[in-house]
Amino acid sequence: MAHLNNTVSSYAKKLQFSLGDGPSSNIIFPHEGPSDKVRGYVRIPAFVKNLEEYGYTIVRQARFSPELVRAVRMGISPPYEEKSVTGLTILDKSGGALYERIPRDRIYSNFEEIPDDVINILLFIENRELLTPTDEHKNPVLEWDRMAKAGAKYVGKKFGMPIPVEGGSTLATQLEKYQHSEGGRTGSVKEKIRQITSASLKVYRTGRDTTVARREIVTDYINTMPLASAAGYGEVYGLGEGLWAWFGADIKDVSNALRIKNDSPERAEAFKKVMTLFSSVKAPSFYLIKDREALMQRVDYFADLLMKEKEFDLQFHDLLKTTSVKFRSGRIDMPLSPFAERKAPNAIRYYLLNTLDLPDFYDLDRLDLTVKSTLDADIQKKVMLMLKQLTDRKYVESAGLTGDRMLKHGDPKNLIYSFLLYEKTPSGNALLVQADNLDKPFDINEGVKLDLGSTAKLRTLAHYLQIISDTYEEMSAQSPETLNNNPLFNKDPISKWMTQQFIERPGLTLEDILESAMGRKFSASPAEVFFTGGGEHTFVNFNKADNHLTMPVSEGIRDSVNLVFIRLMREIVYYHVARLDFDAKAVLAEHNHPLRKDLLKQIADKESHVFLSRFANEYRGLTLDQSVKKLFGSRNTSARHLSILFYAINPFASPNELAKWLRERRPEVPDLTEGTIMMLAKKYGGARLNLSDYGYLLSRHPLELWTIGYLAANPGADWKKLLNDSADAREQTGAWLLQTRH
After folding, report:
1. How far apart are CA 215 and CA 213, in angstroms?
2. What are the 10-residue block averages of pLDDT along the chain, 742 residues in total?
3. Domain residue ranges of the chain, discontinuous segments joined by +
4. Is 1.10.3810.10 the CATH number for 109-224?
5. pTM here?
6. Is residue 169 classed exposed, middle or buried when 0-12, 13-18 and 19+ CB atoms within 10 A define those classes?
């Protein structure tokens, strides 16, 4: 036996891995196993593919030794120190935890933290010889007498004898089974051999002495044993989670009660709760959910055996038998922080859901995943505090926020604030803070479209001052006489005003003209109809007291007066029209003007560039299925919609190709008969419909459909190639503009 242990130990040392830069060609991922699925290890290849489509790259990855590659291909689990608990962790920019799903307060960090009673109960029920101080080189995975007994009963059962079958699994083998065997079960003798081999290699991975490994087995088992699923909580793993989920008890309180070696009711209750959970492990769903009476009979059975083996005295035994444990009733209400405090991490979690293509937060939160974000938790907390204070009338008054047009009237609690802060970095703008004070799941920053009128004024002002600066450069090189006789400077109000300034103020500097431009006065009267790109419109001011005033631009921006900026915008339009190289009035007035058609084509093409750029950015890097999902969103996509999209991308495809496309994307639809396929192909295929028709039928821009198809066929195409190849599509899209009686 010693020789066998030495052989296993020597072989285990060869099963090594190391981290290397970039992707690894010497790595194999698991295909099954409850823990491997829950923690996301099985889906790593799919996750990597999704992340690469979003522009991520593998920086470092494990390299298996040749021996480890061969072992894993034979079904052996890699021998490494596995985590007791895992879960999603989101870190802020400094490495602090912004969101953490790992229940660190419900586990034992090491063997020394575990009370003796907990260890004794577990070993008595499951693996009595595990910590027996005999040979430090002993393999804790194998107990030959236990295996022989289990084997004899198994054979007897096969011969029809009325013998209950018992498992011969040690704690080490059970760990391997419920973590890495398909369904957490032993389906065959071959699978049992795989479990024993994998568990043995893990035990000997650090050397022949298994003393520490045996203690690790106890700790890992206590922290990870499966304990069914609790309503409102989900799957329960480990003693700490089990105590909380099934009894509402805290593992620290239970441990403290067990460390006091007396016959108190507190110790008896704690002891029985631990016994109850350990007694349920053989069939947790049956015992904890379906038949708790059978579970308590099993607990009493082990209590009798423990007294018989003199693990405790008769007095404690009687106290234990009369002590009842109270299970939680109903659904567990998980303690949650206010919605407003969860907006930033939840935004990241939503991003992860889409990026990793996961169905819900439950699956996401159980992944062994750590995410480093650009958010600053400290600033986030300060901003959240400020937003909360802004709803307090006393704070609003103390901060001097009760002035005119501020928070003088009304209840500040009814105001909803949102805040975004970005930091400029060499790699781009990084999000530092994302917050709002709406204590509901809806995220203002993510889900609201805001009409930012005052920022439009700011953009208009910047444009206006840029015009002043550019025109100053043009005029400063000319004499007053030339300026006065130059027709370019006499067509629009801005140029006329600047010409007058240059004539009246020799030596005028750029700073002088910019200051004077801010002093130009405009009427704030709303009593005028303005012709805009959307037709004739009238506008109003926020403050009716401004309606009869004429004020400089500087006051208009300070007080956010709408009509001042409406008139300023009109002058900006006149400025640009005056600098066109054709007569705009003539083109608009004369329906058959030779430039009219060319200008409409230019407008349509320019607009198509904008849409094409937007769609290229939205769909670049996505697979065709991801693009389809993005196009249609979460709504149930009909065969009709999918057919329209298919023929928009492949107008001359055959009915058989349509059938293949539909069945790949809607395999659950039973009515995709040959007749239905032919009807859809006849209705939407062929040359009868064009790109604009398909866009109309799907209520989407035609170029969006074209971009999806093009990028699916040409995923590596750059912007220049995409733009060049889209010429026909852009022409089709803009053709409607030329089909007019006018």
Report:
1. 5
2. 69 90 93 92 93 88 94 92 91 93 88 96 91 82 64 50 58 93 89 92 89 94 95 92 95 95 92 97 95 95 90 89 92 82 91 91 94 95 94 91 81 91 88 92 81 78 96 88 82 92 91 96 95 85 93 94 96 91 72 71 81 88 88 74 91 89 71 82 86 89 92 88 88 68 50
3. 2-100, 109-224, 339-447, 453-579, 594-738
4. yes
5. 0.64
6. buried
